[in-house]
Design brief:
heterodimer, A: alpha+beta, Alpha-Beta Plaits, two-stranded antiparallel ribbon, B: alpha/beta, Rossmann fold, six-stranded mixed sheet, 15 strands
């Protein structure tokens, strides 16, 4: 096989025989030609499709009984992953919590937010682009 | 005698500023650097006098100038800037960003050496430093060409199938600061030619939110760059369409290369920029003395018109490619590398060598060119250049 052939872009294959990628409502065939130019993201709100919880090695575990609902965890969380209901903490959005531990560090109550090793983090989901 | 108002005497910088004013960009970012300063100064005067409604942003560096026009262009408006030498070098990382995001920015480069030692005069070391950044590059021989390129650049960059920034290059001082007579279009003609810029997608289209500048990792990066390379390869077709339309409007037709007395040429010079004019005069003299010499002037340096170059040179017996910059440590200069690659992909590779001239503004005269032609004519007989790289106009012997 010549060098040229080895490095050539693969010939076009019917889209039915290849996977398609989706992000938000945007779909494109799995070909370099059809990707959005300039690596732009052609629709809004795609970050919700990217489950950053997959970055986590430790997870915060919330205990409602020990919590005073001071909301310091909610204030400090860099990923807005502390879930609230009517001004009270109800838990952690594990799809997006990266496990940084800031909530547990800032928590003034013993045992309300505790970091534990995590082996159940979600997979990253679809890339935003 | 009827006065022809389309004929005016302008310096290259003034011609560039006039083109910029007539294109009426929405945003221009400016930062002074010799020899481009006068261009932006003249443009600022147009803005101050109310001749053009551009938002002129006076920034704190060229890095900021390029960043500002990138931001402006991403919001879907027409954005331009101008620079020289070290200013272009300071833009360097942003040049890649502008091209990689496929933003149709046009920029005027008034070519100057990058030093050190410090020097403010013309050579192409600034332009050659950006040759791989993904910008289309058009070189001008005269103030006329600088003006025409400055207008066409906007249309080329904004073409839906191109979407690639364009750098128009004129030679510092030699072109930028000498007064030349040129034909200009009226403001209305240029307004109609460039049209209204309405990109399909932009950051300010709130109906369809989008993102510029997301991180693109190994799973997609290469595909995106392949697209960009494809746009560059396909650009000549669309550049030709714009040139054709411009020719109908102005009567001036520009091709990727210009051939001068090449029909029966045994010896060919290849030149970029203002030196082409001097070369043509020297060629006329040498033709009278019976030397079959011609000139290939490269007008469109990126994308490099390799097919046309190979075709034009394949029948010659000796080629001297003249570089106004050094590619330190490379076998030959930047233009010579591209010509050599073009010949290799063509039908025949005639004896070819590189002559470096004009660094830091060193003058190249008709007599210098005559010397270059005489040497190239010897190579046409012997088939063997004296060296891969020759230097024109050095103190003392070259050795």
């Amino acid at each position: 096989m010549t060098v040229e052939k080895r490095h050539a872009i693969q010939p076009y294959v019917d889209p039915g025989q290849r996977g398609t990628h989706t992000a938000g409502g945007w779909r494109w065939q799995d070909r370099w030609r059809d990707l959005p130019p300039g690596g732009t993201v052609p629709v809004g709100g795609t970050s919700t499709h990217y489950l950053t919880g997959g970055w986590r090695s430790d997870r915060p575990v919330f205990d409602a009984n020990a919590c005073s609902h001071c909301l310091l965890c909610w204030v400090f969380c860099p990923d807005a992953a502390i879930e609230l209901d009517d001004g009270k903490v109800t838990g952690v959005a594990y799809d997006y919590c990266k496990g940084c531990g800031i909530c547990a560090y800032e928590c003034p109550k013993q045992g309300a937010m505790t970091m534990e090793p995590d082996t159940t983090a979600p997979d990253n989901g679809e890339a935003a682009i | 005698m009827k006065r022809d108002s389309s004929r005016v005497a302008l310096t290259g910088n003034e011609a560039g500023a006039l083109a910029m004013k007539q294109v009426r960009p929405d945003v221009v970012a400016g930062y002074p650097i010799t020899p481009q300063t006068e261009l932006m100064q003249q443009f600022a005067k147009y803005v101050a006098d109310g001749d053009v409604a551009t938002d002129l942003v006076l920034v704190e560096s060229e890095h900021s100038a390029m960043s500002a026009v990138i931001g402006a262009s991403a919001t879907g408006v027409r954005a331009m800037t101008a620079t020289s030498a070290n200013g272009l070098a300071l833009m360097w990382e942003m040049l890649y960003i502008a091209a990689g995001y496929r933003l149709p920015i046009s920029t005027m480069l008034v070519s100057r050496s990058l030093g050190g030692p410090i020097n403010i005069h013309c050579d192409h070391s600034d332009a050659m430093g950006m040759r791989d950044t993904g910008w289309i590059m058009l070189f001008a021989e005269t103030a006329q060409e600088a003006y025409d390129n400055g207008i066409m650049a906007t249309r080329i960059a904004e073409h839906d199938s191109v979407r690639t920034p364009v750098m128009t290059v004129q030679d510092g001082f030699i072109t930028s600061h000498t007064t030349q007579v040129l034909s200009v279009l009226t403001d209305d003609q240029v307004t109609r030619f460039v049209g209204v810029y309405r990109p399909e997608r932009s950051l300010s289209n709130f109906e369809q939110p989008m993102t510029y500048g997301s991180i693109v990792l190994p799973d997609y990066y290469m595909d995106i760059k392949r697209q960009q390379a494809d746009a560059m390869v396909n650009a000549p077709r669309f550049i030709d369409q714009v040139s054709e339309e411009y020719a109908e409007l102005s009567g001036r037709r520009y091709d990727p290369i210009e051939l001068y007395r090449m029909d029966d040429a045994q010896v060919a010079l290849v030149v970029l920029g203002s030196a082409a004019g001097t070369a043509k005069d020297a060629i006329d003299i040498m033709r009278e003395r019976g030397v079959a010499v011609g000139l290939l002037k490269v007008r469109m340096f990126r994308p490099f018109p390799h097919v046309e170059v190979a075709e034009a040179l394949s029948r010659t017996r000796a080629i001297c490619v003249m570089d106004r910059s050094l590619a330190m440590g490379a076998p030959m200069g930047a233009l010579a590398q591209d010509v050599a690659t073009s010949l290799v992909t063509g039908r025949r590779v005639p004896p070819m060598y590189n002559a470096v001239y004009g660094l830091g503004g060193r003058d190249i005269t008709i007599e210098d060119f005559q010397g270059v032609i005489e040497e190239a004519a010897e190579v046409a007989v012997t088939g063997a250049p004296k060296a891969a790289v020759r230097y024109v106009g050095l103190r003392g012997n070259e050795e």
